[in-house]
Every structure is written in structure tokens, then in C-alpha cells.
Amino acid sequence: MGLGAYQTRGDYTGRLDEVQENIRRFGAIDVCSFVPGYFKNTLKNLTGPYAMVFLDVDLHESLRTCLLHLWPLLSDQGVLYTHEASQLDYVSLFFDREWWRTNLDTDSPGLIGAGCGVPTGVARGSGLGYTRKRSTTFALELEYQPFCGDPTQSVRQHRGYAETAATATHSSADN
Ligand SMILES: C[S@@+](CC[C@H](N)C(=O)[O-])C[C@H]1O[C@@H](n2cnc3c(N)ncnc32)[C@H](O)[C@@H]1O
Questions:
Q1: Residue 91 structural domain
Q2: Which pTM does this prediction carry?
Q3: Is residue 1 situated within a structural domain?
């Protein structure tokens, strides 16, 4: 998403001291650390692991950058929230299997609340959505297998499809 009709350059700009003052007044500054700068320059310096990530970053490109850097730092069964859940075109990325496979070598996690937001009790729907990071063995550990099948199979299957497709492409290139 570029700058749209309702967004202009500098919207949401805040100086570090201004942000810190707000956190001091309304939050708990002693448990916060501040990392000024653009995500593409700063996120690579973070180390995690994080039990929770909350993204309110508006722009499609920023969402991609955040997921690329922060998803690997999210601990297994950690939760990632977005504040843009009601925008279906934006959160469709959470269902884009090819993007997740290509960029993060994992299945797309989906998003609870996609298109409407989870109910918070204060309005109809909300902007909030979340997803949970689950290893391929998570469902087995929870004994979901009788209901959902073996999730490791879907990974193997996916790899199998990719290998078959690569072989098919290779052999058609040979002909
Ligand atoms: C809707 S605002 C977040 C508001 C915040 N949650 C609050 O309640 O005050 C979105 C923020 O994401 C920041 N942002 C978006 N893309 C960014 C990027 N690539 N690098 C750094 N900051 C970015 C914007 O500068 C803006 O401050």
C-alpha cells in the first residue's frame, strides 16, 4: 500500500522523547526498550525470543518486513497480533502459502479475526486479529492427530509436490 487518500507523509510521526513521555504517563517505561528507525534497518538487530508480537504498522510492505524479521524470533506457541485484521486485502498475507513457504520456509499460519477482527465487547468487531506460531509437532503433542491427521505429513506432502513440480519443469525444459 502506498500513501493513500487518508494518509500523508509524516502522519503518526513522533519524536523519541514525545513517545517516551507518553509511555511514562500511560504505560510502564521501566519494562520498555525503544528502537528508533525504519524496520528494515532496525529489526535485524533484535534477538528475541518473543512470547508475543503486536504489529500496528499500517503498510503492506512494513507488514512483510516485520514478519520476515520477527516471525523467526517468535517462540513456539507464541502469539502475533495485528491491528489491521479487518482489512482483508492486508491480512490475506497470513494465508498466502507461497509467500510463507518462499520467505520463511513454513506453512502460512492463517489469522483469527481476518476480515472482521475479534470481538472485544466494545464495538462490532475490531481491528484486532491474532495467530499462533505452532511447530509441526504441536498438534501431535496436543493429541489433535485423531481429529486432524498428522500435520508433519502435510509438510512432507508439500515438499513432495515441490519436488515433483521441479522435476516436471526440469524434464519439460529438457524436451
Ligand atoms: C498506526 S501507527 C501505530 C500507532 C501505535 N500503535 C499507537 O497506538 O500509538 C503505525 C506506525 O507504524 C510506523 N511504521 C510503519 N511502517 C514503518 C517502517 N517501515 N519502519 C518504521 N516504522 C514504521 C509508522 O511510523 C507509525 O508510527
A1: 16-134
A2: 0.78
A3: no
